[in-house]
Amino acid sequence: MTTLGTTASATLTAQIVNPIIHATAETFEMMLDSKVKRTDLTIQSMNTPLYDVSALIGLSGDAGGSICLSFKDDTAFKVVKQVLDMDVDEIDGLVCDAVGEFANIIAGSAKDKIKELKLNLGIPNVIQGKDHHISFPSNSQPLCASFESDLGPFKIAFGFVKK
Description:
CATH architecture: 3-Layer(aba) Sandwich
Helix content: 25-40%
Number of strands: 7
Distance between the termini: 15 Å
Structural class: alpha+beta
CATH topology: Chemotaxis protein chec
Order of helices and strands: HEEEHHEEEE
Oligomer: single chain
Number of domains: 1
């Protein structure tokens, strides 16, 4: 990868970080009546594990990349309880659907906030299992924002490259 490619990817990722963080906070406040606090922002590497259940959404258009929402299992259970008033204690289809839908809402809101890029959302894919890993486009500089909320901890990882 060239320095120019790395610089362009880092600039693009920096351009989208605030819209993603704002979309996350708005979604939690509006849909879950939960305040969030970003606790960390780090470079996401292949060796950085995510939580127990994650939803990955690809975006394409003027840039390509993905956004990943990752919940600890207890956080995901509390999200389902808050939205559907249902008690769950295992990662099942309902939990996966809820995590996928929240990732979709956050990614859609972030996309709308990034006015200078025309982006299209893909369909969320849900991954489950302790300490799983995901990959981002090879030329991207992915970041991971960690959050605390009234419902528990979660992460948003994202990486993009300009087309």
